[in-house]
Amino acid sequence: MIVLMLGSAPNVLDCRDWPRGQIDRIVAINNAWAVRPDWDFLVYPDDFPPERRPVDLAPGQALISSDQYVPENNRFGGIVYAGATMAFSAGYWALGALRPRVIAFLGCDMVYSARAAHFYGTGTADPLRPDPTLQDLRAKSARLELLAAQAGCAMVNLSRAQSALTFPRARPDNMSLARPRTAVEPYIAPVLAAERALGAVVPSGRYWEGTPLEASDLARIDALWLDAHAAVMATRPEAPPLRGSGNGGPSDRNGQGRRPHRA
Questions:
Q1: Would 187 be classed as within a structural domain?
Q2: Domain-embedded: residue 14
Q3: What predicted TM-score, i.e. pTM, was given to this entire model?
Q4: What is the helix (H) or strand (E) element at residue 156, kind and residue range?
Q5: Adjacent-strand bridge partners of 121
Q6: Partners of 6 in the beta sheet?
Q7: Contact 254/220 with Cβ under 8 angstroms?
Q8: Where would I find the H helices in 77-120?
C-alpha cells in the first residue's frame, strides 16, 4: 500500500491534478482535505474547529480524531517521543493503522517564511511553538523514519522545498520504488531503551495536564535519534537511492499544553 500524506504548506497544491494511479490511500491533515476531493482519511486534533471540518463525506471517507491516532502513536512510544504536532501524529497513525509499504509526504516541510505558510492563507505554525516535544523537528522526523523502516515502511518526501523532514526525496512517478532501510534494529534499540528508562509516556496523549516534561531530558533523546539516523544513513543502502530529474525535485536529503497538533 502507498499512502499519500497531505499537510497544509502551500506546495500541497501541487498534487491537485495528480492521477490517483499508484496511490492507494490519501490521508489529509486538518485543512488539507480541501485540496482534492478523493481523500480517504482526515486526521485532526481535538481543537480543530468543527466549522473547518467537511460536512458531507463520500463513501469510504473517514474522520480520524485523537481517539484513534493517540492509541496508534502509543504503539510507537507515545506522543511525547513522537513529537506533538500533526505531521508526526498522523504519520504514526497511518504507519500503525494502515501498515503501508510507502508513506509519501507533501506539504509537511515545517519550514516557515514571511510568505503565506499555508495553502489556505494565514495560520499558526504549530510545530514552532515552544514545546519540549518539538525542540528538534529533524530528530522527530528521524525517529519516525527509523521506526517506519523497522516496520517495513519507507518514508519519502515529495516536496521540492526546504524541509525539516529527514526523508529522502521522491517524485509521484517513482515513489513506488522507495524501499526502507533494513537492519536498523541495532541502531534504534539503544534509543528505545533510553526512552523506556526516561519513562515520559502519557497514554492519554494529554501530556500538558501532568507533571511538566523536562526539556533537557527530551533533548538528550532527540540527540540519540539523530545519531542513530546518521549511523543508519552511513551504511550501504539495500537499493539505489531515488534520483530526482525533470519535473521532480532534488534527490538529496534536506539540507493536544496548548492543545497541540496543528499542521
A1: yes
A2: yes
A3: 0.85
A4: strand 154-157
A5: 118
A6: 28, 106
A7: no
A8: 79-82, 86-98
> How far is it, in rounded angstroms, from Cα 180 to Cα 197?
28
> CB–CB of 261/216 below 8 Å?
no
- Gyration radius (Cα) of the chain, Å: 17
Domain assignment present for residue 239? The answer is no
The amino acid present at 150, given as its one-letter code, is Q
User: Is there a contact between 37 and 58 (Cβ–Cβ < 8 Å)?
Assistant: yes
Nearest to 237 by CA among 160, 183, 195: 183
Are 85 and 130 contacting, i.e. CB atoms less than 8 angstroms apart?
no
Residue 239 gets the label, from left (phi > 0), alpha (psi -120 to 50) or beta, of beta
Provide the pLDDT for residue 250: 31
Q: How far apart are CA 90 and CA 92, in angstroms?
A: 6
Letter for the amino acid at 242?
L
Residues in the chain: 263
- Indicate the residue type of 157: N
3-state secondary structure of 186: helix
Span 74-120, pLDDT tens digits: 999 999 999 999 999 999 999 999 999 999 999 999 886 655 444 44
Residue 256 lies in a domain: no
- Compute how many other C-beta atoms are within 10 angstroms of the C-beta atom of residue 42: 25
Range of the domain at 29: 2-234
Grid coordinates standing for 114? 514571511
Q: What was the pLDDT predicted at 4?
A: 97
The percent of residues above 70 in pLDDT, for the chain, comes to 82
Question: Based on the structure, what is the number of domains in the chain?
Answer: 1
Contacts of 160 (CB under 8 A, 6+ apart): 11, 169, 248, 249, 250
State pLDDT tens for residues 177-200. Answer: 999 999 999 999 999 999 999 999
